[in-house]
Structures are given as structure tokens and as C-alpha cells.
Amino acid sequence: MTVTDERVRILDPAAAVSALASAQRFGEYVVYERPGQWVFAADPLGGIELTAEELRVRWADRSTTSRWTGTPAQALDRALAELPTEGRTAYGWLAFEFCAWSFEATAHVPARTPLGFLMIPRIEVRLDGNGIEVTGATAEELELIHQLVEQAQQTAMPDPFPVDITPDPTGYRDRVATAVREIRDGRYQKVILSRKVELPFVVDVPATYRLGRAHNTPARSFLLRLGGLEAAGFSPELVASVDDTGMVTTEPLAGTRAFGRGDAADRAARADLVTDPKEIVEHAISVQTSFAEVAAVAEPGSTAVSDFMAVRERGSVQHLASTVRGRLAADRNSWDALESLFPSVTASGIPKRGGVDAVFRLDRDPRGLYSGAVVTVSPEGELEATLVLRAVYQTTDGAWIRAGAGIVAASTPAREFEETCEKLGSVAPYLVAG
Prior knowledge:
Elements: E1 2-5, H1 13-22, E2 29-34, E3 37-51, E4 54-59, E5 62-67, H2 72-81, E6 90-94, E7 114-128, E8 131-135, H3 139-152, H4 172-184, E9 190-199, H5 205-214, E10 220-226, E11 229-235, E12 238-242, E13 247-250, E14 253-258, H6 263-275, H7 277-295, E15 304-314, E16 317-327, H8 334-341, E17 349-350, H9 352-362, E18 373-377, E19 383-387, E20 391-395, E21 398-407, H10 413-424
Antiparallel strand pairs: 1-8, 2-3, 2-10, 3-4, 3-7, 4-5, 6-7, 6-18, 7-8, 9-17, 9-21, 10-11, 11-20, 12-13, 12-19, 13-16, 14-16, 15-16, 18-19, 20-21
Helix pairs in contact: 1-3, 1-5, 4-10
Domain Chorismate-utilising enzyme C-terminal: 170-423
Cofactor: Mg(2+)
Enzyme class: isomerase
């Protein structure tokens, strides 16, 4: 059953989906924001869990566990095709480690490492400028959903809990110095190294999403509780999308300066960004890589770059940005496009094989969802995978935030550490204690 109510005026969609997530009435969920629309997808009818060793598929009261073959993307594609989804969209997330099979880096990935989760929701709540549309809910649930959405519009913004992001127990500057030496030795051209900041309190993830979304300007945003993980984030770019016409799009961002420090400071930072040789080279080689990856799955001659080196503001930072598009080849599908583009070049390295190897060696602990993707897959094969950065993560073991920077031959440890602080500024000031 689908019910549309145009009488409900949604002034704050982030507050509405945060309230639905906080209600603890709809099981696991994924909130996904694309331009002009928020979706709250919840109470899975079934789902797929992929680890480095096993594929687990659940539907209703049945579940199966098996070894998988091929690549992770192929395993998920096959499993999803076999589920009786009845026209429903799948939602989920992919870990950074999902990429290891593409770059012969599986020795870095223990057998039980989570690679991805997909779920098929029973309930979907869509909110946009026209009101609210609910699919799959009972009459009682429908009434509750409307109550929660309406009440959320009157609820005050939560208060943040300050956290210090400047300590560095991970030895980030030393790791940057190691990467610079390896780059100058010719092992690779670029690598994105990250650092993890453990949080000393339990996080209210839905409330953090609401507060953080009010202070960010993401390309996409997400909030989820799926596969033993809670997360909320403000994605700066798409890893990959394939629309209903077969157009493949990726949006590499590389080159960063702080933003939100006042008009004069922001203009000065922008001027510095667009003229800095290190940042320009870093961006150009990222676009070159993205172009080759789209071309590998696109019709010959259809791949093109637009908005080359535009500047886009994303919360506490501004980036050099470009868009790369190509028409999907007839013998390829959306999972092929994702596999070609994943992980984002702006979150791994160049060339990717050397960059991914360096990430596994120098980042030390598993990345998990950080620099992976939140994904949506339609029954018709449309796919979006948004890059997971500027996010907070939480499991039963604790909560953390994480940020990285692109290391090239001209990098200095002090500046790259400063860049991680600038990026953490998109999330750290808006954390809400649970």
C-alpha cells in the first residue's frame, strides 16, 4: 500500500528522518538523501551479507550461507537477482575492503572481514517538497510515521558535545613521511592516508545526522543502522551512478582548502587552491584515472569531462571538482561500472593498485565503511554509490570519526595533518552524545 499526503509540510526533512530512525520501531534502516528527496527505508524483508569468505542471504524465515566465487560485485549482483524483491529498491553499504579482489590485495583482508550489506525494505518513507509518501506500512505504522514527522518539525535542534581532534595517537605525520618517500622512490604517484579519532562517549547517531546536516552542503547524505554498524555522513561526491538511460557518472574531488571561516578567508583560500601546483596536479591525475575507469565500461568515444576544476563547497572544506560521464556499453551492467570505479580514486591512490596496497600497509587498521560507499540499486538496474567520508561510525565496540588527505611527492606531513583537521571539522563540531 502506498499513501501520499501532500498536507504534511516538511520544513526540515533531516529532522523527520532522524525522528523515524530514533523511534526504534522499524528495525534496521538506511536513510539516503539525493537532491530534493530523502528516503527512509526500513524493516528489511531480507538481505545479503558478504564477508571475505562467505555469502549469507536471508529472505523472510529462510537463510543460506555459502562460499562465493568471482568478485564481490559479481557475488552481490547474482545474489540480488535471485531475491523476490517484487520491484523494491535495495539499500546498503560497501566497505573499502570490497576493492581488494580488484587489485590482488586479498592477503590484507582476514576471512571474516565484512565487505558489504544490502537490504530490501518493507517500508519506504519518501519526503520531498510535495509532502510525504509511505509504502509498505500498516495503518498503525502509517499513523505513527505521520506523528513522528510532524512532531519533528517542532523539535529543537540537539546540542553538540565537543571533541578534540588534534591528538594523533596513530602517528599520522610519520606515515605521511613514509608515503612521500615511497612516492619519490617511484612506487606510486599518490595515496590517501587517513587517521581515526576514537570518541570517548556513546553517540546519538540520528541526532548527530540532523545537526550535522544543518551545517553541511553534501552531494548526498546518509544515516543507517545495518549489519551491526551505525553511521551518519555527508558525502562530498559520487563514486559511481548509473541512471535509467545507462549514463555512468563519477565526480572526483581532489584538492582541498578550509571553508566557512569568513568571506575574506574563504576567498583567499579559494584563490590559493586554484593556483596551487600541488593541488592542481593532484586533481588532474585523479580526473585522468576516473576518465580511464569510465571509458573501460562505456561505449567507445562516449566518455567526457565536464566542469573541470570547478570549486565546490562541502561543509568545512572546499574542493577542486570535476565530473566524468560515459554511456554504459551494451555488454556491461551497473555493477561492472561500480567495480571499475570503486574505490573512489580520491580515497585510494594513483595508480590504484599501488595506492590500495599502500593504504592497507600504512593505514594500519581496517577502514570498513570509511572511504567505502552507501549504495542504492533499483529493480531496473539503476545504481548510486556515494562516497563515505565526513561521517561518524559506531558499533558495540565504540564510536569514531575519520579523515584523510591525498599524499603526493610535494606533500608535507604538517600540511596533510592540517587537512585532516579541516575535513574532521565537517563532523566533529556536530557530534551529539547519546
